[in-house]
# Entry
Amino acid sequence: MMITPSEITELIKNSGNNFHAKVARWFADNGWHVLISPYYMDQTQSKAREIDLVAEKLWPLTDAFGHIVDNIAVRLYVECKYVVSEAVFWFADKDRESALELVCRNGLFQRNNTYTENHHYLSQGAKVAKLFSTSNSKATENEPFYKALNQVLNAMTSMQGQLVTIPSARKSQRYPKAVFEYPVVVCSSFERLFSVEFFAESKPQPIQENFQLEVRYAYIDRNDHQRNDYFLLDFVAFDKLSEFGQAIDNGAIVAADLASE
# Structure
């Protein structure tokens, strides 16, 4: 039997591609349809780019008799970050009004509703990351989390609204009643991530839970319109993907119930 050279083992172990594959397997094993490194056209530069993963999943809509009559879909735009150096995130209060508008944007979730308040964009912490810095960064464009943020938002704003690629949905030729689209950065670990307060002097604290980063993003949409929209990006540790998946599942079930009414 051939012995694998130690250099090859180390290359695989420490490769971002290996982590990319690990994240893809997690989504596939948990019922998601996964597109690996799909390419899209960057509207701002007319240039082909790629994103690590696009993951899609359907939730059924039922009538009063429990019969499935339609479905809703969730589409995740995922960047996978193998964290190799320390990073600090500056946290401040979440813009709840903008977050509420974001949740209610598709018309299913409504204001002054308990279900809406339980959406993970609103229920997951009052603080959000605003800025970040990584120890090995030399310039903004080479900052790993800046690149992740830009790639995931660029992909989402370029690809949002496209038909779902789930085989069963394509076979039925029925477009889901609603599609919820979320930008996500999955990190190999949070062990090297720390938080500080933006509006107060504070000691760095280890980041231990999934969190969100808040950003205003200016872009040109697919109809060549200039936009400047509010987004929340989920930052998820690989060992906490199940918690994130449960939050997405809970929101999708509520959305399906609302759409069935």
